[in-house]
Amino acid sequence: MQPVFRFAPSPNGYLHLGHAYSALLNAKLARETGGRFLLRIEDIDTVRCTPEKVEACFEDLAWLGLEWEQPVLRQSEHFARYRAVAADLQTRGLVYPCFCSRGDIARAAPTGRDPDGAPLYPGTCRSLSADQRAARRAAGQPFALRLDMGKALAQVGARTWAEAQDEHLGDFRCEPAMAERWGDVVLVRKDCPTSYHLAVVLDDAMQGVTHVVRGADLYAATGIHRVLLVLLGLPAPRYFHHGLIRDDEGKKLAKSAASLPLRQLRQDGARANDIRARLGFA
């Protein structure tokens, strides 16, 4: 089977050096294994993911010397597909509507935290009756759809997933998925018909991605993705999680932290070869 790699940014900000590293690494591994390199635009946040930022993403990656297959999958064009899968999970009794706000969750779970550090959802709406849910919907209360993790894990059973902690294609080890650490995660957001977790699993499967190579900050999320793959009967890719590019203070680069974007480095006179060499891809 021909290996398939992908770089899948969310253009809700401009790309920085961390994105450049991940993109260059995926392209390098695709070349070395005779594989394919795909670019996917994860733009489910249609408010912040503007056309300008999508085009800037293309420009920055092309400036780095990267080439990718066409057409580029844009998640915002696949909402109907995500919606249909979520509806199927709801029919199977695996998801339920959650009407809680972030404030509600924080007050209900003041100490419990998920692997990302957010307040761990305590399952408040899981026990609502059908009549209570119908009444809240009729009242126009916005809701998300959450995975009933207890039911999901009961169906999945004891499963493991292959994992490697560096960029080399080897030295796999099997570890427990440990999706229970996340509690009942959101699969459909209040503001759009999917979430990152559902969309990324469906798209990797649809595009035939065989190797998911991404940052170590997504290591724990692989547990959720492994559970969804089994529930949906989808083939599992191999997962690798590379180290993160950090600033001078040791903090990971992030759009939310206003890390210096590639386009600013370009404007300041940096050359593509300089960036590639700085990241170890000379």
Descriptive notes:
The protein has 282 residues and is an alpha/beta fold. 36% of the residues lie in helices and 15% in strands. It has 10 helices and 10 strands. It has helices at 17-32, 51-63, 79-91, 102-108, 130-138, 149-156, 196-206, 221-232, 262-267, 272-278; strands spanning 4-7, 36-41, 73-74, 95-98, 144-147, 160-164, 173-176, 186-188, 211-215, 238-242. The chain has a 4-stranded mixed sheet with strand order 7-6-10-9, with helices on both faces. The chain has a 3-stranded parallel sheet with strand order 1-2-3. Helix 1 (17-32) links the parallel strand 1 and strand 2. Helix 6 (149-156) packs across helix 8 (221-232) and helix 7 (196-206) crosses helix 8. The chain is globular. It starts with a strand and ends with a helix. The mean pLDDT is 91.
Care to count the β-strands?
10
DSSP summary: helix tally: 10
Helix percentage: 25-40%
Query: How much is the radius of gyration in Å?
Result: 20 Å
- pLDDT below 50 for ≥5 consecutive residues: which ranges? none
Strand order of the largest sheet: 7-6-10-9
| Terminal-residue CA separation | 29 Å
Provide key terms for this protein.
four-stranded mixed sheet; three-stranded parallel sheet; 36% helix; 282 residues; alpha/beta; 10 helices
What is the gist of this entry?
By secondary structure, the protein is an alpha/beta fold. The chain contains ten helices and ten strands.
